[in-house]
Amino acid sequence: MSVWVVQHFSVREADRDACLAALKVIGEHIEAEHPEILAVRTEWQWVGDRAHRAFSWAEEFASLTAIDESVHTPGCDDVWRPVLAMITDGTHFRGVWTGAEPSWSRT
Fold first, then answer.
1. How far is CA 43 from the centre of its chain?
2. Label partner for 42 (CA 20 to 30 A): which of 2, 34, 52, 102?
3. pLDDT tens digits, residue range 22-80?
4. Can you give the pTM of this predicted structure?
C-alpha cells in the first residue's frame, strides 16, 4: 500500500492563483526529477475550518523506504520557495499518511 507525504497550509485569498501557479511548477519539477514520487494530489478548501485559502498537497510514494531514499535537490528548494513565502504563519502542517479500510472510489 502506498504512503503519502501530505502538507496542509493556507495562503491569503489574494495569493490563491499565484499559489496554484507555483504548485504547478512544483509538480513539473517532480515529474522531471523525482521518479520515486508516483503521484501528486492538490486540493484547495472551498469552505471549512481552515484559514482561507487552505491547500492540501500530497505526494505518493510506494513505501516508507521510498520516502527515505528520495533525494532532496537544490531544485526542490527553488520551486518550493515561492509557496513557502506565501504561507500564512501557523498554518503549515506536514505528515505521512497511509491507507486504511474502508477505502473506495466510484471513479
1. 9
2. 102
3. 999 999 999 999 999 999 999 999 888 888 899 999 999 999 999 999 999 999 999 99
4. 0.90
